[in-house]
TrEMBL record:
It comes from Fuscovulum ytuae. Homodimer. It is found in: Cytoplasm. This is Ribokinase. Its EC number is 2.7.1.15. Catalyzes the phosphorylation of ribose at O-5 in a reaction requiring ATP and magnesium. The resulting D-ribose-5-phosphate can then be used either for sythesis of nucleotides, histidine, and tryptophan, or as a component of the pentose phosphate pathway. Pfam families: PfkB. The lineage of its organism: Bacteria, Pseudomonadati, Pseudomonadota, Alphaproteobacteria, Rhodobacterales.
Length: 307
């Protein structure tokens, strides 16, 4: 049994650094290329395990070399995999453009086998979900699977977190299954139709999501940190910097993984947000996604510096 159970995808990240993105029909020279483990669900599971959480991932892989990268990544981080092998598909990949000047990114994900995660895959792991303290999912795998897993978790009294990434239209009854949603600014804009360029706008957008039935809204705001808002409190937690930003890819995953660990330890939700911010703050100083996730000792040291 695991305290943190994550439903989501693994893909191989193919990360290209360049000064800018090519225009359609144009070829430009990049400055580097790295192949490594990715996928939001997998990244979040690695972040949680590295931060000290007993963590499982439910997913689907092909039978190929990228699947071997997934298994090696989870073994190294201490994540327990619950994998449906899918010989009729392939383990997916992500194209990641990283802008040299800022470390910001743009991503295309082809989920492959994980894009075929089914309600049956979820049902096969029902007891695992019911035994968790925190359940997390995202929107890179089919939504019916996410919905079923959220229903199982909610019925068992497990705390439910939806990281609605990438943004997709969601029914209110699905949002009502979520104790906490963790969109970034652009995902919040897509979900609500409201602008999120200031803290005041983020608060209004959070209210719109609360009105649609979520228990709490936790909006990640890039270099401005995060906003936590529920029906009784609204708290802005500033970014916790660990140094120069090199690569922001996977920062949201680091945040979600760290946040979940702190919740399972019984910390107050705002303390858990700070723990998530510290986890993300370290991850952005390093290249890559899963390989950038910090250890528990590193997170504790950064939080101790700031307190
Ligand atoms: O959140 C970052 C992740 O999004 C990358 O690892 C990429 O694979 C995409 O899923």
């Amino acid at each position: 049994m695991s305290d943190i159970v994550i439903l989501g995808i693994f893909v191989a990240d193919t990360a290209y650094r360049a000064d800018r993105q090519p225009k359609m029909g144009e070829t430009i020279l990049g400055t580097s290329f790295v192949l490594g483990p990715g996928g939001k669900g997998s990244n979040q599971s690695v972040a949680a395990a590295m931060a000290g959480g007993k963590t499982s991932i439910i997913t689907r892989l092909g039978k190929d070399a990228f699947a071997d990268i997934a298994r090696a990544t989870w073994a190294k981080a201490g994540v327990t995999p619950h994998v449906t092998e899918d010989a009729e598909s392939y383990t997916g990949a992500a194209y990641i453009f990283i802008e040299n000047a800022t470390g910001n990114n743009a991503i295309i994900v082809a989920a492959g086998a994980a894009g075929r995660i089914s309600v049956e895959d979820v049902e096969a792991n029902r007891a695992l979900i019911e035994g968790a303290k925190v359940f997390i999912t995202q929107l890179e795998q089919p939504i019916p699977a996410a919905r079923r897993a959220l229903e199982i978790a909610r019925a068992a009294g497990v705390r439910t977190i939806l990281n609605p990434a990438p943004a997709a239209p969601l029914d209110d009854d699905l949002l009502a299954l979520c104790d906490i949603v963790t969109p970034n600014e652009s995902e919040t804009e897509s979900l609500t139709g409201l602008p999120v360029t200031t803290l005041a706008e983020a608060e209004l957008a959070a209210d719109a999501l609360l009105a649609r039935g979520v228990g709490a809204c936790l909006i990640t705001l890039g270099e401005r940190g995060a906003l936590y808002r529920d029906r009784t409190r609204s708290v802005h937690v500033p970014v916790i910097s660990a140094g120069k930003v090199l690569d922001t890819t996977g920062a949201g995953d680091a945040f979600n993984g760290g946040f979940a660990v702190a919740l399972t330890e019984g910390r107050d939700v705002i303390d858990a947000v700070r723990f998530g911010c510290a986890t993300a703050g370290i991850s952005v100083t390093r290249p890559g996604t899963a390989p950038a996730m910090p250890s528990r000792a590193e997170i504790d040291a950064l939080l101790a510096c700031g307190s």
